[in-house]
Amino acid sequence: MSSQWSNVSSDLLFAIDRDRDEPLRSQLEHQVREAIRTGRLRVGERLPPSRELAGALGLSRGLVQDAYAQLLAEGYLVARVGSGTRVAAGACPPTAPPVPRRPAGRPPLLADFRWGVPDLGAFPMPDWLWAVREAARRMPVAELDYGDPRGSAVLREVVAGYARRVRAAAADPEHIVICSGYAQGLSLTLAALARGGVRRVAYEDPGSPASVRAAAAAAGLEAVPVPVDEQGIDVGALTATGARAVVVTPAHQWPTGVVLGPERRLALIAWAAAQDAVVIEDDYDAEFRYDREPVGALQGLAADRVVSISTVSKSLAPALRIGWLLCPPALADALVSVKHISDRGSPVLDQLALARLIESGRFDRHLRRMRGTYAARRTALLAALAEHAPGVAVTGLAAGFHAVAHLRETADERGLVAAARARSVGLYGMSTCRTSRETAPPRLVLGFGNVGERAVTAGISAIGDLLREQG
To answer: CB 3.0 to 4.6 Å from 260: which of 26, 65, 82, 232, for a disulfide?
Structure first.
């Protein structure tokens, strides 16, 4: 059987079978009719010029013109000078399958104190578009090939300088791996550690149990929780777990907001050396601090024992999916190998655009602007709580864009969250950050990164009586 195929649109093909008894023109007419009836060709969609279609199918142009003329006469097609031949309005019968409707979404909230989300509306789109254009204009052709799995050498150099300047990190471009956000960075690190014989990884509790446990399971590791107190992770409890890796947030513990104290920092590094272990530092929002001195990256104290993961998810937007790992030299090759197997490298144009954004000073300018924005929202949150729920204590506000509200010991955390939702206010309990999911002690984690000042005030005002009852 001899058939010839031609692309009409991205998902539409015609087949001409010269071994059939049916005339070629009739075959073409039938297939166009069926494409219209079944929705493969939709109203207003343009068909290829007769000369182009004839050449693709190996037919005479006159035959294609005759087929088009017949379909025009039947009302399936319409032709206008300068517009070509298109599917006519009304050509599809009423029996065509209806387009499924999306289910109606929830009504918008008066205020949504969802954590972990920066101000999406403040994304510096003009600066990002400028950086992308600049990156594309300067990008050598060789950059379009499969490159170094560690990522663009340009971005690694820029990131190293940024990490040394802003985070007091011991950053070497040769030992940096660009990744697609924190989730991939953690998965790569745990997979590399598993290759080296690590079988158990610890994590802070409360913290991010779901993400750590999922990444650990994928790497074949056991994940165990370690309690956090007012000085950060309990290193004595960590030692008792027998883990040889731990995930921590030392600069601004998630979600309690405490800073890993100096003695705990030294104790954690000593633990890593004694256990031949690795500390995985989630440096997630260190750029945003308000009324405290800057806290350097833990990696700067022990570059041979710490993998530091940073991203632009909080500083710019989660959708960019760009992050980087500062790797201990002894672990770098294993991480690069896992990254190569995973995806052969992250998108290069976006990496070069981020490098241009940082080099130009526009990234720092954006961060300065956002520090002011988040500081104003923090002030609005404290003022609203002081007015409407003065009994609720708030902690964790020295950095980042979330706070912890402490409720009274008998408070119903889940009930409060549900009652607030009924008033169109999104609240979130700390119980979801605990491995046990227990609500004791009852706490709320109030994110204000993507909530404007007016919404902060209006939201707290709307649930003030609920907070007073539970605070």
So the answer is: 232
Dihedral (C-alpha) 162, 247, 191, 348: value to the nearest 10 degrees? -20
For the entire predicted model, the pTM comes to: 0.85
The tokens for 227 are 């309690």
Question: Are residues 305 and 273 in contact, defined by beta-carbon separation less than 8 angstroms?
Answer: yes
Return d(Cα 121, Cα 378) in angstroms, integer.
18
Please, are residues 471 and 412 in contact by the beta-carbon 8 Å criterion?
no
Asked if residues 59 and 28 have their Cβ atoms less than 8 Å apart, the reply is: yes
User: DSSP label at 319?
Assistant: G
Residues 210-219 have pLDDT tens digits of 999 999 999 9
- Alpha-carbon distance 104 to 253, whole Å? 37
For residues 352 and 152, give the distance between their C-alpha atoms in angstroms, rounded to a whole number: 7
Q: Which of 291, 366, 286, 445 is nearest to 123 (CA)?
A: 366
DSSP sequence for 8-68: EETTEEEEEETTSSS-HHHHHHHHHHHHHHTTSS-TTPBPPPHHHHHHHHT--HHHHHHHH
Residue 101 has a pLDDT of 62
